[in-house]
Amino acid sequence: MRVVQAVRFGGPEVLVPGQAPDPVAGPGQVVVDVAVAGMTFVETQIRRGTDRWHERPRLPYVPGGLVAGRVSAVGAQVDPAWLGRRVLASTGETGAFAERVVALVGDLFPVPDGLGLPEATALYSDGSTAQGLAEHAKIGAGDWVLVEAAAGGVGSLLVQLARAAGARVVGAARGSRKLDLVRKLGADAVVDYCEPGWTKLVLEATGGMGPDVVFDGVGGQIGRAAFEVTARGGRFSVHGTSSGEVTLIEPAEARHRGVEVIGIEQLFDFGPEIVRWAEQIIARAAARVVRPIIGQTFSLERAADAHAAVENRTAVGKTLLLI
């Protein structure tokens, strides 16, 4: 079968198309014929060897941890009723950039009728994360919410979830194309965080008080600047490091400013809740409360281009491989 492998750690060019043996389902496992493979920004950093939150995979490795497709074979101790079903399947930290994958039956998520596999992939990964972040931050009606990377997969859903909760939203992103998208998603104000003095615009939009909730998906100087304008009594939620650095706030400083910091460590406890949150966000999509933004798709052979688009910030919304 066709696969894409990272043959060494480095830039997108290390992703090379190749061949691998077809997987065979063992006890408690199924084989999924892959139609869609998801990807995340974190996976680009794992490929570079710079990610600090995951163990380095052994080279060469097949990237990706989530696929959507149909079950084509089942192993021992698996109900044959799974055969032919459309599912999302977790492959762990690696293995998704392939025509077929093997997955534990316990890691399958049935895709509801009427929902496309690309949409399901975007909602399961980024949607469940956004749902969990929103739940932890306790968005309230009338709150001002600042969403960094608001045109990204998670950010675009956070904008919609905040609006659905009755909050007012400032969407922060890079460049006019992304800002236009954030406006269309219903943000009350947009700011380009590459422009000097962008936080002054955030304060102006919020009547000088600052946002009650900040979703920090960027980190670094941008995350730090966003913390500085968070309203007293507000919540500062950290979930991303696309700048390469996590926003670290000393507890004493947070107390002095009267801000509750929900650190990036929150993500480590998301695992047991992912299915519940995925069910919630998919139900909201079915009710047309939210919609996933799939900005670009690539073939399996162009996985390097897909990684480059995510890594160099030209991607809008979710980036997927269609296999």
Protein described:
Strand 1 (2-6) and strand 2 form a beta hairpin. This protein has helices spanning 41-48, 117-137, 153-164, 176-184, 198-205, 220-228, 251-257, 274-286, 303-311, and strands spanning 2-6, 15-19, 29-38, 66-74, 86-90, 100-104, 108-110, 144-147, 168-173, 189-192, 213-216, 235-238, 260-262, 294-299, 318-322. It is globular. The strands form three sheets. Strands 3, 4, 5, 6, 7, 14 and 15 form a seven-stranded mixed beta sheet that branches. The longest helix is centred in the middle third of the chain and has 21 residues, at 117-137. By secondary structure, it is α/β, with parallel strands linked by helices. Helix 2 packs across helix 3 and helix 2 packs across helix 8. It contains nine helices and 15 strands. Helix content is 30%, strand content 24%.
How much strand? 15-25%
| Number of separate helices | 9
> How many DSSP E strands?
15
Tell me, rounded to a whole number, the average pLDDT.
Answer: 95
Shape category: globular
CA-atom Rg in angstroms: 20 Å
Helix and strand run: EEEHEEEEHEHEHEHEHEHEHEHE
Give the biggest sheet: 7 strands, mixed
User: Separation of termini?
Assistant: 12 Å
User: Helix fraction?
Assistant: 25-40%
Which stretches are poorly predicted, pLDDT < 50 over at least 5 residues? none
Which structural class do you get from the secondary structure elements? alpha/beta
What order do the helices and strands come in, and which of them pair?
Blueprint: E1 2-6, E2 15-19, E3 29-38, H1 41-48, E4 66-74, E5 86-90, E6 100-104, E7 108-110, H2 117-137, E8 144-147, H3 153-164, E9 168-173, H4 176-184, E10 189-192, H5 198-205, E11 213-216, H6 220-228, E12 235-238, H7 251-257, E13 260-262, H8 274-286, E14 294-299, H9 303-311, E15 318-322
Helix pairs in contact: 2-3, 2-8
